[in-house]
Amino acid sequence: MKAVNKFVPAIVIFTIVAIGVIAFSSKQMSPSDTTMKGNDGLYPGKIKVGHLVALDMAPLFVAKEAGFFEDEGLDVDLAFFSNPGDNNAALAGGSVQFNINPFTLPYFGENSGVPMRIISTAGGLEIIQVVMQGQYEVETIKQLAEWVKNNPNQTLKVGTLRGDTLDMILYRSFAEAGLTYDDFEMIWFNDLLAMVESFRTGDIAILSHIKPYTTDLIVNYDAKVLTNNDEVWGKGTPNTTIVVLEDFLAQYPETVRRYLRATYKGFELIVNNPEQAVELLTGGNYYKIDNDVLLYALKNQPKEVLLHPNVDGMMMAIQDMVQQNYIEQPQQNIVKTDILDAVVRELQ
Question: 158 near 208, Cβ under 8 Å?
């Protein structure tokens, strides 16, 4: 059996160790126990959703602010996490019923014995971007490879989160250009907002991050985009996905259906009326950036409501995780989109 990489900073250590410890209590104490199951497949209580803050979570936020969850008869509360590992542990422990996390994280959970299931993307295309300080005059990964070759005495600092989609996009895009992490000084963060601030202050040269924060860096700090997740893994490969535990999916399919209906409507509103979306998002104070930047980010998204994940693209990243010994080879498909597919057919 392949050993899992021991050198993994906070995000992965907390995920692999903590959720494995919590898994027993989640099965014993989770409010999704069969004794609470309603006859109609509806979860009998308040639904808590763990999330980070990225542009592809805007459908969640808009659905909340616009009342789409209420329209579906769901009582939804949001719980912010600054670290994806903490978000994963909350789902494993039963303190949230849904979470939105980078799609790599459910595989860490599954690898640790916690049966997590991806039911949809969170919403949004081309969300992950690799950006570089404008002073280097580099605008593609290929040009970056040339810069590294031509400047052997300079080592660029690169900021990312290990084990996250932000790690995986760098790993593959660098490899395709003949680069490795050894060509750089890798700075491993465990806080998404701290990464952005480090780029703003010029402490790092390259950042793998997410819209709308990369949008702010492009508009206000002269950052250049080297690549994005659609370019690296293919259209529809997500940044984050909507995840539930396997037993919750089995016991509360109607709750899942209604949740996805509200999410779809939130995504649709963003695509059709970004100005209204920004107004709703401002009311919730989700993004710590100027409204003009947020509106720019939404308007420059592909005009398509696409929630079905590109599993082939995701598996490219998962195989890279296996290659780096982050996880063992997945033994089953954890992407379950039957309910999503029915919702999309209904609403399109």
Answer: yes
> Residues near 7 by Cβ (< 8 Å), separated by ≥ 6?
none
70-123 per-position pLDDT tens digit = 999 999 999 999 889 999 999 999 999 999 999 999 999 999 999 999 999 999
Beta-ladder partners of 158: 186, 206
Cα of 39 vs its chain's centroid, Å: 33
This prediction's pTM: 0.88
64 pLDDT higher than 70: yes
279, pLDDT greater than 80: yes
CA distance to 29, 30, 41, 277, 309, per residue, from 37 (Å): 14, 12, 7, 35, 29
Q: What is the mean pLDDT of residues 265-285?
A: 96
Residue type at 11? I
User: Measuring CA to CA, which residue among 89, 84, 119, 123 is closest to residue 104?
Assistant: 84
Burial grade of 334 (CB within 10 A; 0-12, 13-18, 19 or more):
buried
- Residue 132, token pair as written in the block: 């570089």
First to last CA, the chain: 46
CA distance to 250, 272, 273, 341, per residue, from 71 (Å): 23, 20, 19, 20
